[in-house]
Amino acid sequence: FDNTNPSAPVNLIFIDIPGNVDLSVKGDYLYADSYVDLVVLDIRDISHPVEVSRLKDVFPYTIPDLENTMYPISGIAQENGVITGWQVKEVTEDVNPDGIYRYYYFDKGTNVYALNNGGVQPTTQTIGIGGSLARFIMYENEFYSLNQNSMQVINISEPDAPVLGTKIDLQRMAETVFIDSNRLFIGTQTGMLIYDISQPSSPQFITQFNHFQSCDPVVVQDNYAYVTMRAGNNCGNFQNAMDVVDLHVITDPQLIKSYALTEPYGVGIDNKKLFVCDGSAGLKVYDASDPFRIDEHLIRIFSDLKAFDVIPLNGTLILIAADGIYQYDYTDLNNMQLLSKIKIGK
User: Fold this and answer.
1) How far apart are CA 329 and CA 248, in angstroms?
2) Of the four, 14, 39, 189, 200, which is 20 to 30 A from 117 by CA?
């Protein structure tokens, strides 16, 4: 879309990238996941994008969503390539010698996990300058990509020829990544990890902030982190809340206050203007000048949409909802104006 005028975005082209969940742009190059690969497209001529590079097997092996999750899935030979669709058949199989019947579960953007015999529950990945639900992000000449419980650093000093760098074991199920200043904030199912990227090619662990198991987007501004946690899903079942964390002493993050929410997804912050996507409860807009009393300064609720993620940028809020992309003018929080809606999906 040409979004020069947010009140009238112009549809230019659809770029077909099979198996895509996330994307990012540096200059004239678009980086996107395509199933398990990282693909680089030259978009200098936006009407004719050209694939110029592909790094294979950067991302976890994924399978398409199932129309009926009650069906078991037969064994998958990953070495044969990716799966792009399904056929439902009735078959007869022998049980395994150990007598355990193994079935598989899929949640979009994750690996295939056996759910019996101690299997690990998968994490939910969503879409999402980047929103709070982004799975990869850029800083200077480095590209940081989350891969379940690890982070892959990729050098993009030559944008059309990315080179694999360090792979960091996070020892947690990572979901989202956000950069503030020269620090990397990684949202995981059990807390926030903080890394120093003063040397971008070699992130150094600083500290962690732990919480109950749940889905965990995070954004940071002015030495405060805003961490949303969503329950009732594969990430965990404990609480729906937003933690505000004091980062003034970066080696010792301190919880200021936890605020109850309904179904929190993404979150955005710009100059104390806080936007919380509370799922079926809509978009909630706060004045966050006082981190101890954010709930007392709720300015507005957009309850007629299911909000997933936001990007507040220079007075224009880009909001991802269940039925499309909304853009608002938020220069006056008390009088936010809908600029446009791009309908996407059903």
Assistant:
1) 31
2) 189
